[in-house]
Amino acid sequence: MDKRELFSSPLWESVLDIDNDALLVEVKEFVNNTEHSAVSSIGGYQSSKPFISSIFNTAIYNALPKEIKDVPLLQDTAFAWVNINKRGSTNRRHNHGTTAKISGCYYLSVPKGSGNIRFYDPRGAWVRSLGIKDYVEIEPTEGMLLFFPSWLEHEVEQSSCDEERISIAFNVNSDVPSELEMMMKQLNNIPQEVNQ
Q1: Which of 64, 98, 154, 169 would you label with 107, given CA atoms 20 to 30 Å apart?
Q2: How many other CB atoms sit within 10 Å of the CB of residue 147?
Q3: Among residues 146, 143, 164, which one has the least CA distance to residue 41?
Q4: For the chain, what are the domain ranges?
Q5: DSSP three-state, residue 13
Q6: Which residue from 82, 65, 79 is spatially nearest to 13, judged by alpha carbons?
Q7: C-alpha–C-alpha distance, residues 122 and 150, integer Å
Q8: What is the pLDDT of residues 32-65, one digit of tens each?
Q9: Is residue 136 within 8 Å of residue 66, measured between CB atoms?
Q10: What does 82-119 look like in DSSP terms, one character per residue?
């Protein structure tokens, strides 16, 4: 019997070509002037406004997978935010929605025991019913860059160390409207009947 693999979920991994020390200084200054917002963070820090850095944006753009680079992108490539986790901190299971073309995470500082990132199989409960593990864990390292589909659910394990794990999460948006955006625009242009 032949077997076909139909729908895979890509994950791209590389090391970002960037001055990590200079970026860390920029991030620390940003964090000192930016309030915390708990979107997915539990017990840690998550920036309440976008982290804007031309050095980071340029590095992310240059590292984009070819499949994404071929799509016209918005001028500010990465909509980014900073996450800082220490002992007991975690990031609950979430995704980055469907409006971004791709999402990612860059790891500036990764002490041992600061928590792996766990990506969940989008087939959900069906996979668990077969007794198959429904997630893949990745142990991040300093300088690691991950790209993944924005709809792919993920979480960060609880940190068991006292030092800070610092990462920059981001979404990459496109100039090309998504099918959903185009459909909504078409629906909004349909004349509404007025009952008299």
Answers
A1: 98
A2: 22
A3: 164
A4: 12-188
A5: strand
A6: 65
A7: 12
A8: 999 998 889 999 999 999 999 989 988 998 898 8
A9: no
A10: EEEE-TT-EEEEE---SSSSEEEEEEEE--TTS--EEE
CA gap 104, 76 in Å, rounded: 15
C-alpha–C-alpha distance, residues 46 and 37, integer Å: 5
Q: CA nearest 119: which of 149, 86, 83? A: 149
For every residue of 40-64, DSSP letters joined together read SEESSEEBSS-B--HHHHHHHHHHS
How far, in Å, are 26, 27, 30, 63, 160 from residue 33 at the CA level?
11, 10, 5, 28, 27
Cα 156 from Cα 142, distance rounded (Å): 16
How much is the mean pLDDT over the chain? 86
Q: What is the pLDDT of residues 91-107, one digit of tens each?
A: 999 999 877 888 999 99
CA 131, distance to chain mean position in Å, is 28
Q: Tell me the C-alpha distance between 51 and 57, whole Å.
A: 10
Instruction: Tell me the pLDDT tens digit for each residue of 108-147.
Output: 999 999 999 999 998 887 877 888 888 999 999 999 999 9
Distance CA 124, CA 152 (A): 11
Q: Whole-angstrom Cα distance, residue 32 to residue 71?
A: 35
